[in-house]
Amino acid sequence: MTDTTAHQTHDPSSEGDGGTRRDFIYVATAAFGAVGAAGAVWPLINQMNPDKSVLALASTDVDLSPIEEGQRVTVTWRGKPVFIDHRTPERIEQARSVAVADLPDPQTDAERVKEGHEAWLVMIGICTHLGCVPNGQGSGEAKGEYGGWFCPCHGSHYDTSGRIRRGPAPRNLDVPPYEFLDDTTIRIG
Ligand code: FES
């Protein structure tokens, strides 16, 4: 098992902290190789000298408990940024009050989150146009016209469900495979 430290960023659109909330906090994540129980079998793994194809199978566990409502955090999974948004009720309502059929890539908000965990949006933070990392995670970053994320490379606007609303991106931001291990822990991958 390899411990990593993930960088988190703070969304200023969430009110109520009087400006005292931390802009940057850190959360521990744990990356697991496909073999599992890495501590016990490390000598074997070391001997096998796992290559990138093994590492590519790794999953990442994220403790959600330090992430406050309204906060957006970025973790890394398989070398990619993964956006985690602890959505406010307003953001959820915004995402669910959309005429889905009119969307460029029609998908309901419910299809993009886990049932019973609607406050948590988990997406790969890579624009589906040409691969830039959209803005919207950090303090003061532009979030586009739909309150979600904005890709400054060619002007793609994503909404509070990470769906493409305007601009050249052909698809919504991708949702990686993940599951809730308990109410405050997810495993990505
Ligand atoms: S890469 Fe995001 S709009 Fe082109």
From TrEMBL:
Top-rank taxon, per record: Bacteria
Region Disordered, residue ranges: 1-20
EC top class named in words: translocase
Membrane-spanning segments: 24-45
Cofactor(s) listed in the protein's UniProt record: [2Fe-2S] cluster
GO CC annotations, alphabetized: plasma membrane
Catalytically driven reaction(s): a quinol + 2 Fe(III)-[cytochrome c](out) = a quinone + 2 Fe(II)-[cytochrome c](out) + 2 H(+)(out)
Subcellular location: Cell membrane
Keywords, comma-separated and alphabetical: 2Fe-2S, Cell membrane, Disulfide bond, Electron transport, Iron, Iron-sulfur, Membrane, Metal-binding, Translocase, Transmembrane, Transmembrane helix, Transport
EC number of the protein: 7.1.1.8
Entry annotated with the keyword Mitochondrion: no
Domain Rieske: from-to ranges: 95-187
Note: The Rieske protein is a high potential 2Fe-2S protein.
Official protein name in the record: Ubiquinol-cytochrome c reductase iron-sulfur subunit
